[in-house]
Design brief:
Chain lengths: 101, 188
């Protein structure tokens, strides 16, 4: 049985759906960050698969840039989260709604 | 044959790990499951022949990002159970499936219309790492440098945000304030 591009795209879709479920049902901001990591990784799988099956290296290049963006997102996001936790003592999403919008 | 076995095995493992990450109520379990899932994801890159990408995935994600999360978790109260949002389950699952299908359509539309041409075709006779280097340092040199500057900015931002008293500037303070600041007991 040959593994084709569609297999990888379906896998990427499943992982993306799991990440989206995580983003929508989590309240804790740290676990929301985990869910965004899953989203970025699922897209990376799709990029690498397309790069392999079309013999083009652009997909891998974009996967590298996605990894770089994920790393910097974690650094800045965790810094902001620490500042928020020092100020309010909680990293729940509900504590962010100070404007009562 | 072996490719199919490896694909299905790692697909099952990855989906299980990420499912644990989004459903568990313990932050520590979520962190460990996410780290395991990242390593299993790198297996797909090795299957697809993107060796360098797989190595980068292991080093950056499980080495740097997970370590950063582990250190970040020391600041938070992660021992208690995480509360979940009480929303409509069907709306959540429906919306996520819809968005995921949208992603597939975005990826699949150029393939169906068959106008994909390999802009930078794989070079014969060299390894994956050499190919990546050749393309990265010719066609993608400017994005590469911009990514380097972005990482530097992120590093500075992380230090300034998480460091103690990094919001004070010694050069901009006058002498009395500086003395006051020196005599003040370090909080927390």
């Amino acid at each position: 049985m040959e593994i084709g591009l569609n297999h990888y795209l379906v896998l990427s879709t499943i992982l993306f759906a799991i990440g989206l479920v995580g983003v929508m049902r989590r309240k804790n901001l740290l676990l929301l960050f985990f869910a965004t990591e899953i989203l970025l990784n699922s897209v990376n799988v799709a990029f690498a698969a397309i790069s392999h099956y079309y013999g083009d290296l652009t997909g891998q290049m974009f996967a590298f840039f996605v990894i770089a963006i994920a790393a910097s997102e974690v650094a800045v996001g965790l810094g902001l989260l620490i500042v928020w936790f020092k100020r309010h003592g909680s990293i729940d999403l509900d504590s962010l709604s100070s404007m009562k919008g | 044959m072996f490719e199919a076995i490896a694909f299905y095995l790692f697909a099952f493992l990855t989906i299980t790990m990420f499912f644990i990450t989004v459903t568990t109520s313990q932050a520590l379990y979520a962190l460990t499951a996410l780290a395991a899932g990242m390593i299993f994801i790198s297996a797909f890159f090795f299957i697809l022949g993107a060796d360098f990408l797989g190595a980068v995935q292991i080093i950056v994600y499980t080495g740097a990002v997970m370590a950063l999360y582990a250190f970040g978790m020391m600041f938070f109260d992660t021992t208690r159970e995480v509360k979940e949002k009480q929303g409509n389950k069907y709306i959540i699952i429906g919306l996520s499936t819809l968005a995921a299908i949208l992603v597939v359509v975005i990826f699949a539309t150029p393939m169906v219309s068959e106008n994909i041409v390999a802009l930078y075709p794989a070079i014969e006779g060299v390894g994956n790492t050499q190919e990546v280097g050749l393309v990265l340092f010719t066609k993608y040199l400017v994005p590469f440098e911009v990514a380097a500057i972005m990482l530097l900015v992120a590093m500075v931002a992380g230090i300034v945000l998480a460091g103690k008293k990094m919001d004070l500037s010694i050069t901009l303070m006058n002498d009395e304030d500086l003395e006051k600041e020196k005599n003040k007991k370090v909080l927390s």
